[in-house]
Amino acid sequence: MEGKVTSGGDMNQSRRSGKPESMLLPNSALLATKLRLPAFHYPFPNGRNPNTDAVEVEVAEWAVGHALVERGGKGEAMLRSLGPADVIGRMYHHMNREAFLAASIWSAWMFLVDEHFCEVGAYHAWPGGLAQFHLWLRAILTDPSGCDWRSMCQEIVRNLSTEYAELCIRTGEATADMARRIENVSSPMQYARWMEGMTFYFLSTIWQVGLNMSGPPPSVREYLLGRASFAGAPPTYALADIVAGYEVPGNDYQHVQVRRLQTLVGTVLSLCNDVMSFPREIGVIWNLPNILIAQGLSQQEAITNTVRIHNDVVGDYLDLEARITPWAGAELRRFLNDMGTLMRGHYDWARRQKRYAATENYVFDTTAEPEDFRAARQENVKED
After folding, report:
1. Percentage of residues of the chain with pLDDT beyond 70
2. Could you give the CA distance from residue 184 to residue 367 in angstroms, rounded to a whole number?
3. Which end of the chain has fewer CB atoms < 10 Å from its terminal CB, N or C?
4. Is residue 209 within 8 Å of residue 117, measured between CB atoms?
5. What is the mean pLDDT of residues 37-63?
């Protein structure tokens, strides 16, 4: 296999509602000139784990070893360019080496499953098929060492072309291996939290591919509810204490204020991703700037407004963090710090992504440094 496989087979094609072009909203147009990108507010430390480059090599070997990409092919080049270890290494700076590798393999797995089976892959515009596929993946995650994933796989591949059927079998093997690696570096409670995050991700991707591509786009409210999960945020922040070798107490992690904080983190990640990926997704229904454009805004106005919403959410995060900190124990305080580096690290990774070509399509304003942003917020509070 070289890069993303192409679909085929009568049954798979008959269940799909069109080609990827059906995802485009009416009157979408490519960028004519560079857009101005207002400053993203990230008052959090930036950095990169020193083992990142070495782990990146191991991740690519893992994907080749499971035949998810072909050595020397376009798929391997795409995966290396995406940098699944790079994004984890920028999000979390202090990690156990084995856990860093496990999280990075999961990151690669997410990229590849999304590319092959969601959005424009095997289950494009086929939510029923994707739901069956996700039920199967969820069963593997529940018991990666004991699940008989091959029997259910036989039912799934009946509805797929030969190419996708073979890829599905390889994905089953890779999923079990990936999940065992996460389980081996987690406590039972941590692994359960991560599985819960993956369940949110599965649910939101079914919502994503089930959107009516020929109808009006979803409301901003509905979109943000779905987007925060199909961006992969819940399992990502569930990895924070796993990779670093500490554990947030259960009642702290599930406290309503901490749950609210996690929702804000997911929204920040999704809005940043929407802006950075906008040049390659102009007109696509699951991108907030495109939804705003469909409501009558220009491309520049849509980008400016999306960044403004993003920065408002960062402000909400800081306000909530300030209310949590006084009662938080040492582990939760460390988790709060990791949520900050998670958001900043995702931004640093995304703006460098050749896949998104953000630097080729935007004129960047300077990102606000921590002291500047916090000072500006304090002044705003005084004025209010």
Report:
1. 87
2. 38
3. C
4. no
5. 97
User: Which amino acid is located at 259 in the chain?
Assistant: R
Contact between 106 and 242 under an 8 Å Cβ cutoff? The reply is: no
Identify the CA nearest to 329 among candidates 267, 246, 268, 265.
Answer: 246
Angle (CA) 38-314-358 rounded to 5° is 35
CB 269 within 8 A of CB 231: yes
Report the alpha-carbon distance of residue 364 to residue 40 in Å, rounded: 9
CB count in 10 Å sphere of residue 323: 12
Tell me the mean pLDDT in the region 302-311: 97
Q: How far apart are CA 193 and CA 235, in angstroms?
A: 8
Structure tokens at 142: 């529940």
- Burial-class residue 46 by CB neighbours within 10 Å (0-12, 13-18, 19+): middle
Tokens 């892959």 correspond to: 121
pLDDT of residue 379: 54
364 phi and psi angles, rounded to 5 deg: -80, 130
Report whether 3 contacts 78 (CB < 8 A): yes
CA distance 75 to 80: 9
Confidence (pLDDT) at 377: 52
Helix 97-117 with 84-91: angle, nearest 10 deg: 130
Query: What span, in angstroms and rounded, lies between the C-alpha atoms of 13 and 177?
Result: 30
Rounded to whole angstroms, the Cα distance separating 171 from 153 reads: 10
